[in-house]
């Protein structure tokens, strides 16, 4: 049973922002009450949501980047600068597309690994500052590029920069957000990614009427806005409480909770449960090894790492890179008139789908939305692939419509909810490292997909078009099976409860109904650790 704030330790006289004495009542198991989010919750937590959107500014660049290559491949001045004529068609060769895609892959992979090292040493806030400067430098390099290799260098640098923010953002928010709003706060990162994809499509479409290099340089230049805004507001951003607790700074951690959540927030309970989770995790591991990279693959922590990684790998295997990233390019290859304009509607539908996930993530839960979403989209892949075999104009229109619907369902389910699973499943002491491993793994699989995709859809190669969905269908079926049997439900649980359930080695389907017995004791140990610190 998820322990509510009302069941938290009773507070007495406070000193330094949190209570110094706690009386713990005996555990009283009660039926679990589903977490229900209302519009009032949005208003009451507007401060929290505002901070989340601010922290997620760099993920806008991540979404922007995901669509950049696919959209620019539909812009003639870009093709004239970096492309070549093949069989009377002007296009960027599959090899050069691989080079551009490799920049994204290498940048995200290395940044994910580095995020864990930098943020664990210097903190979340300083890492974001470093990320912003790298991102801006890479954008400027791309803007003044004249060759594919120059463009590659700029993309590599900017991807490393916003990759730090993308790897750090969900972890940062997970450590600050209240339990009731945590799912929505983490889903917002995907909202910002979709906003980035849409903004890229709008920028490309808005400048596509130009006939000079500004047709592609303007969309590149607009990427500088999110990191610029983030740099201006960073002085007002609180540091991660979990990181401060791990570093032995409980007073500063309490101040961060209060700054992020407001003066009415129950800082004592948040401090007790967060510290309890940290203490419990340290007791499970040998001194000096509890925060090592290797610990992420051992025992309980290994199970947590595998769950997170498989959720993100499933995104790649169900074909998100094709339907969400290559829309405009595929539409152009398929002969759709005004491909960039049609893609605007598709991205708008995806954004609406993501917004639809907000009230559902904490009402329906993580497991039903991810498992159910994966199964429905797997069936959708089979449908899109089958329609694409017909080859008529009507079939093309139906393919475009179902691809748009598929994008809506993806953003409403797996696209949004994966970030909640990724940030709340790892342990507090290993959260950044586990999430970094997840990003590196997902990036590696994304690289594999992106490197093969040009050869599958280019007209001078396999020219599969929508029939590529058959390939993703074959990959997504085993993902549905794994998620059904192995993905636990963590809705409404605080980190002390999550720690107890994983320690009990429950089957995934038993997480939802499990009644935690040791929460009060763990919270008491957390308060004791605070007082000793």
Automatic annotation (TrEMBL):
Location(s), subcellular: Membrane
Record PROSITE patterns: MFS (PS50850), SUGAR_TRANSPORT_1 (PS00216)
Chief location bin: membrane
Entry keyword set: Maltose metabolism, Membrane, Transmembrane, Transmembrane helix, Transport
Region annotation Disordered: where it falls in the sequence: 1-35
GO cellular component, one term: membrane
Transmembrane regions listed in the UniProt entry: 48-64, 99-118, 127-145, 151-173, 185-206, 218-237, 306-329, 341-361, 368-390, 396-423, 435-458, 464-485
Domain of life: Eukaryota
A Pfam cross-reference name: Sugar_tr
Domain Major facilitator superfamily (MFS) profile per the UniProt entry, residue ranges: 51-491
InterPro entries, A to Z: MFS_dom, MFS_sugar_transport-like, MFS_Sugar_Transporters, MFS_trans_sf, Sugar/inositol_transpt, Sugar_transporter_CS
GO MF assignments: carbohydrate:proton symporter activity
Signal sequence, start to end: none
Membrane topology designation: Multi-pass membrane protein
GO biological process per UniProt: maltose metabolic process
Family note: Belongs to the major facilitator superfamily. Sugar transporter (TC 2.A.1.1) family.
Name of the molecule in the record: General substrate transporter
High-level lineage: Eukaryota, Fungi, Dikarya, Ascomycota, Pezizomycotina
């Amino acid at each position: 049973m998820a322990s509510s704030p009302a069941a938290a330790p009773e507070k007495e006289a406070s000193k330094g922002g949190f209570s110094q004495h706690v009386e713990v009542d005996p555990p009283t198991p009660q039926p679990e009450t589903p977490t229900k989010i209302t519009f009032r919750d949005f208003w009451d937590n507007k401060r929290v949501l505002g901070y989340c959107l601010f922290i997620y500014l760099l993920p806008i660049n991540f979404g922007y980047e995901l669509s950049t290559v696919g959209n620019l491949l539909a812009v003639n001045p870009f093709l004239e600068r970096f492309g070549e004529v093949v069989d009377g068609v002007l296009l960027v060769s599959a090899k050069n597309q691989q080079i551009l895609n490799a920049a994204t892959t290498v940048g995200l992979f290395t940044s994910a690994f580095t995020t864990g090292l930098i943020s664990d040493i210097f903190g979340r806030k300083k890492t974001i500052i470093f990320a912003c400067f790298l991102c801006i430098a890479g954008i400027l390099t791309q803007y003044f590029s004249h060759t594919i290799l120059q463009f590659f260098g700029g993309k590599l640098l900017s991807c490393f920069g916003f990759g730090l923010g993308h790897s750090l953002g969900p972890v940062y928010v997970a450590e600050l957000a209240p339990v009731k709003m945590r799912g929505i706060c983490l889903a917002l990162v995907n909202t910002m990614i979709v906003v980035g994809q849409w903004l890229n499509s709008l920028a490309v479409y808005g400048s596509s009427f130009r006939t000079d290099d500004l047709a592609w340089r303007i969309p590149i230049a607009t990427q500088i806005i999110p990191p610029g805004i983030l740099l201006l507001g960073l002085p007002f951003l609180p540091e991660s409480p979990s990181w401060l607790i791990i570093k032995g700074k409980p007073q500063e951690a309490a101040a961060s909770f209060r700054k992020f959540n407001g003066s009415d927030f129950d800082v004592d309970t948040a401090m007790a449960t967060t510290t309890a989770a940290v203490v419990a995790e340290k007791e499970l591991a040998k001194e000096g090894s509890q925060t090592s990279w290797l610990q992420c693959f051992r025992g309980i922590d290994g199970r947590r790492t595998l769950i997170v990684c498989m959720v993100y790998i499933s995104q790649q295997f169900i074909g998100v890179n094709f339907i969400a990233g290559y829309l405009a390019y595929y539409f152009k290859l398929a002969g759709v008139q005004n491909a960039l304009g049609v893609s605007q509607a598709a991205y708008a539908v995806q954004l609406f789908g993501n917004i639809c996930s907000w009230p559902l993530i904490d009402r329906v839960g993580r497991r039903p939305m991810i498992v159910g979403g994966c199964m429905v989209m797997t069936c959708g892949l089979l449908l899109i692939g089958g329609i694409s075999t017909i080859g008529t104009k009507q079939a093309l229109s139906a393919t475009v419509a179902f691809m748009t619907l598929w994008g809506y369902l993806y953003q409403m389910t797996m696209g949004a909810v994966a970030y909640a699973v990724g940030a709340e499943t790892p342990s507090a002491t290993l959260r950044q490292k586990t999430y970094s491993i997840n990003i590196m793994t997902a990036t590696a699989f994304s690289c594999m997909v992106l490197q093969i995709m040009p050869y599958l859809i280019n007209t001078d190669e396999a020219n599969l078009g929508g029939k590529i969905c058959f390939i993703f269908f074959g990959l997504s079926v085993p993902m549905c099976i794994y998620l059904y049997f192995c993905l636990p439900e963590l809705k409404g649980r605080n980190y002390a409860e999550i720690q107890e359930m994983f320690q009990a080695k429950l089957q995934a389907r038993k997480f939802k109904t499990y009644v935690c017995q040791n929460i009060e004791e763990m919270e008491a140990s957390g308060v004791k650790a605070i007082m000793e610190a």
